[in-house]
Amino acid sequence: MTETVPTPAGDARIHWHPAPRARLVLALGHGAGGGVEARDLQALAAALPAHGVTVALVEQPWRVAGKKVAPAPKTLDAAWTALWPALREPGLPVVAGGRSAGARVACRTAAGLGAAAVLALSFPLHPPGKPEKSRADELTGAGLPTLVVQGAKDPFGRPEEFPSGTHLVPVPHGDHGFAVPKKADVGQEEALAGLTGAVAEWLAGIGR
């Protein structure tokens, strides 16, 4: 089911993947370089409803409008904030999440919106090759239970670069999009299954 939600930045879309007996909603925003078709978002939408988690893939207004460049962070945050009531409509706790730029939006806004927790997929800890330009404060400032799932070869921040104490699940050989090389000892489907399994296990402890 797809729902169109008006925001100050234009219409957003929520692609709902409902669980039969849902106890949580996991809202996932996309990155700045792609949309909700990202492999990790699609894998979670397919796997989590069986674990009692309704997945809401959120398409930001700039993508809905067919634009190729994401707007400023404050515009992304404003749109996410405006559509939050629609995510709460099922009457369940909502976990804020996203991949890359979407993870940053979730971290910046989750506490203020009353989210139950934060899921950060491929958190862009720094621009590639520029570790001195850290965004760790966004991640640590979320103020809620937070899980980071990060590709072991992510140029935006490898797992070992994250602050100590970060609850982090590495995806072996994964890049920023969780793609793994064909020569790796872990296949693509296996890597995604590890990702969805780790998220399902973590979510099982949220809201209990």
Notes on the protein architecture:
This protein has 208 residues and is an alpha/beta fold. 30% of the residues lie in helices and 23% in strands. The protein is built from six helices and eight strands; from the N terminus they run βββαβααβαβαββα. The protein has helices at 39-47, 61-64, 73-88, 101-113, 136-140, 188-203; strands spanning 2-7, 10-17, 24-29, 53-59, 94-99, 117-121, 146-151, 168-171. It has an eight-stranded mixed beta sheet with strand order 1-2-4-3-5-6-7-8, sandwiched between helices. α3 (73-88) crosses α4. The radius of gyration is 16 Å and the shape is globular. The two termini are 27 Å apart. 39% of the residues are buried. Residues 25-203 form the KANL3/Tex30 alpha/beta hydrolase-like domain.
